[in-house]
Write a structure and sequence with these properties.
This protein has a 4-stranded mixed sheet with strand order 1-2-4-3, with helices on both faces. It contains 3 helices and 4 strands. Helix 2 links the parallel strand 3 and strand 4. It is 39% helix and 17% strand.
């Protein structure tokens, strides 16, 4: 980790190629509040990427949603598997809150990670 930060640069997905890999991997889970897409990475860290579209409101509202999602990630990332990229897409901003996002992430990331493990053993699948 960088200077003791829980959500430093080594915990963020920044490249478009990494986002595409997570979206295309098909290890996804959703619950009406969030959609979570996962993919393996070659790092020893779980990284987070956020995709919050304009349909969720103006920049102020979108930034609030992103702050809540980052905080939910910070609270729980230690309990998730290492070496995965997680892209989170809020589905319904009206149902969004820090508590709702924390509950949703706690439920969805393990579920999507299991799908990731199941698919990585299939022949012909890229790892």
């Amino acid at each position: 980790m960088v200077s003791g930060q829980i959500f430093g640069p080594d915990r963020r997905i920044c490249r478009g190629a990494d986002f595409r890999r997570a979206f295309e991997r098909q290890a996804k889970a959703a619950d009406g509040v969030l959609l979570v897409c996962t993919a393996e990475n070659e790092l020893k860290a779980t990284r987070l990427g956020l995709s919050v579209s304009r349909k969720h409101g103006n920049a102020v509202k979108r930034n609030q949603l992103k702050r809540w999602l980052r905080e939910a990630f910070r609270q729980q990332y230690a309990s998730w598997p290492e070496g995965i990229d997680v892209v989170v897409v809020p589905l319904d901003a009206g149902r969004g809150s820090l508590v709702a996002y924390s509950r949703s992430l706690a439920k969805l990331i393990p579920k999507a990670s299991r799908k990731l493990g199941d698919r990585s053993s299939l022949p012909g699948e890229p790892t």
